[in-house]
Amino acid sequence: MPNMTLYHASPSRSSVALWMLEEVGQPYDIKLIRLSAGENLKPDYLAINPMGKVPALRHGDTVITENGAICTYLADEFPDKKLNVPVGNTRRGEYLKWMFFGPSVIEPAIAERAFPRKEPARPAALGWRDLDTVLEIVSKAVAKGPYLMGEQFTAADVTIGSGLRFGMMFKLIPERKEFQDYVARIGQRPAAKRAQDRDKELSAQAA
Ligand SMILES: N[C@@H](CCC(=O)N[C@@H](CS)C(=O)NCC(=O)O)C(=O)O
Predict the structure, then answer these.
(1) pLDDT tens track for 141-152
(2) What is the best residue among 36, 53, 115 to mutate for testing ligand 1's pocket, by most ligand atoms within 8 Å of CB?
(3) CA 54 to ligand 1 center in whole angstroms
(4) Is there an atom of ligand 1 within 6 Å of 162 CB?
(5) Where are the alpha helices (DSSP H) in the chain?
(6) Is 24 in the pocket of ligand 1 (CB under 6 A)?
(7) Could you say which of 25, 45, 56, 99 would form a disulfide bridge with 49 (CB–CB 3.0 to 4.6 Å)?
């Protein structure tokens, strides 16, 4: 029996962790959480993630929540897959920067644009910049190619790539050619295709 379980709503932000699990290639189970039925807010699931959000990943006795943490964890836990930049390598700093950039800069900048505040905050009081500035930085980083870390595909491509893919799909960010090319490139990976196929099956089942 696999000792990893992904708590997943299909498709959703937990699709990022699903892709990462496919990249890692270890056996795992999926426990579907129906957000529309409020299963994420039931005591059983709140005991796993008190935030009531997916994804959560159980690995043995360890529970990890937050996509950035899950992807960093899996990449470090299964280093033979070469999805991380290990401790001791000078490129790890840049790799970690991208692991944090998605959830702590790109997502809030997108949310701020999509749901503007009545009273805009002082830019220096926020931990991110406006969406145009953020996207310019990401655009330069992915345009170099083939991956964020150059020739090595890493967990950072899973998190940033998923964010760009969903961002364009939901028309939250512009379909810039650099983003489209990058998302198409990483979407060709067999693990990405398996995760997307799995999501299609699971969402058809849930419908
Ligand atoms: N910061 C979390 C965000 C997770 C998240 O927002 N998940 C959404 C699914 S897209 C969710 O569970 N929403 C249910 C709710 O908020 O009630 C992460 O990156 O893992």
Answers:
(1) 999 989 999 999
(2) 53
(3) 5
(4) no
(5) 14-24, 43-46, 67-77, 92-101, 107-114, 131-144, 155-169, 177-187, 190-206
(6) no
(7) 56
